[in-house]
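LOG
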Amino acid sequence: MRGDKLFRKRLDKHCIFCGENDSTVLDVHRIVEGCNGGGYDFDNTVVCCSNCHRRIHHGGNIVIHGWVTSTVGKLLHCEIDGEERYLSKFDRPTHKE
């Protein structure tokens, strides 16, 4: 499991939500929680920084609906601050301080 998380962080290299690329603060979030049978496979994970990870679990202002397939590839369907978004892991957002 730890190897899968490390591999995913090295592959994606930045937070999909804010663009943070400091590997020491990147984490791997399971979309379906482990207690509900969710594993660390690619279709159930997203790389995010520790700040955005807290927003997912505690702030409630990042809501993840899951990965969807579109004509441009896989996109993460989510809501950030109440706004619906479709994010690509290949498009790095500008990091905000």
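LOG (cont.) second protein
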Amino acid sequence: MGGRDGLIDSCGVARRALGDDLAGALALYGKALQQDPAHTEARVAQVGILVDQGRYADAYVNIAGLQKHAPKDPRGAYLKSLLLQRNGYVQGARAAL
């Protein structure tokens, strides 16, 4: 399998196989995004890991990419709101939704 389907399979494998290896998962998601910057599932998964690690600046960059490549995907607004709220920007968090 190649192309976008191959990337989706790679991300699914990363999710299952790496478990607690967050650095390894980030590397695989990063590789998928290098091949296809519009790969929404890889970007969402990467943002989730970055937020869990407290790497908010990196997460915000990826959220911007998610909103650029998938502007109608509601997860971009949700993740942006979550990140703003965690950083104390309550009004910005509400506005993001």
